[in-house]
Structure prediction request, 406 residues.
Amino acid sequence: MSISSKDIIYLDNNATTRVAPEVVEEMLPFFTEYWGNPSSIYRFGNQLRMEMEKARARIAQLIGADPQEIFFTSCGTESDNSALNSALEISGRKKIVTTAAEHSAIIKQCTKFQKQGVEVVFMPVRPDGTLDFHEVEKHVDEETAVCSVMWANNETGVLFPVEEIAGFCKLKGVLFHTDAVQAVGKIPICLKRSKIDMLSLVGHKLHAPKGIGALYIRRRTRFSPTIIGGSQERGRRGGTENVASIVGFGKACELAAARMEDENTRVRNLRDKLETGIFLNIQDAHLNGARQSEKRLPNTLNVSFDFVEAEAVLLQLDQRGICASSGSACTTGSLEPSHVLKAMGISAARARCAIRFSLSTYNTEPEITRTLQALPDIIERIRKTSPGEMTPGAAPHPTARTSGKS
Ligand SMILES: Cc1ncc(COP(=O)(O)O)c(C=O)c1O
Prediction:
């Protein structure tokens, strides 16, 4: 491996994040000295239970939950899958209401359920990526096993009104689950004050390692496990616990709570600086997602640059050591436009021109300045060499320069 994090400007924090040095430090003894099994009867193993409970309490604290409501999993996908499986099984109902903008961890599982005879409603989103609450009122009914709506979209950062939806579901006697994988650690969350029944979260989006997640299950919510085996996690998730990563996840949550202010001020300002700079200096650029800063995560910006393929931009950015991602998923070599942008009614042509920038507490002002220096040149060069397909027009960003082409 030759490219290290020292060589790059990392603007892809919705994909994964740097493990915080403080997290690594807390984890290390659990590889070198305290590597026992927490289920063992002897102290060498059993002592680890206390460390796991400390981590559980730190995670619960970040989202305003009770430690007994946190169950460890291996990733966000497992948390999402387990929540929906359980809701269907426990309720005995055969209907799920979700949105067309969910992560594939929800979408693909729902598509599988559909094939098994479950009715699934994929609620549409508005052109700015937000959800109309009337959709929830229209579709969630007494037949619904679970309504699952993400807290924040991973591609656009758009926030969904999950607390209001949870309140409505409670009135209808319907379980409510939210995929909060992108929201936890970035915006304040207090589950004690909400009616949310289940919430998915994961470590690697908030500076803990990959391969550790959790599912919040509200006290007294009946639950049927997906991973069955030992009686770990009070019978709700079998499998020997990933102690070192659990410890790291706990530390990362403690750090996230302390850095929440920074995320919502400095990081938001950096994101806004990037956004304003792009629309001032690059023609025919379009924001994908709600314009109002407060309707999006503080760290996320998704922009389509007309007439350029996102992949070409990403490769050029990579040449300059800048990591970002596209609004497309690469499936067997062909770029499929993002289902999220498609759900927003964005044309396939414009979706293929979408770039997502996602920041973290480790980004600095000089990094954003360097990105803003590089980007206009990259876009101009690509446009000159390969004039792409014209993409349909949209209302310009308040600070946008337009060539009049769209
Ligand atoms: C909104 C959302 N949900 C779920 C996941 C899946 O998480 P993991 O890759 O840890 O399984 C992701 C990962 O990008 C995500 O962004």
Remarks:
- The chain has two domains: 5-12+260-385, 21-256.
- Confidence is low (pLDDT under 50) at residues 402-406.
- Residues 243-281 form the longest helix (39 residues).
- The chain is about 40% helix and 15% strand.
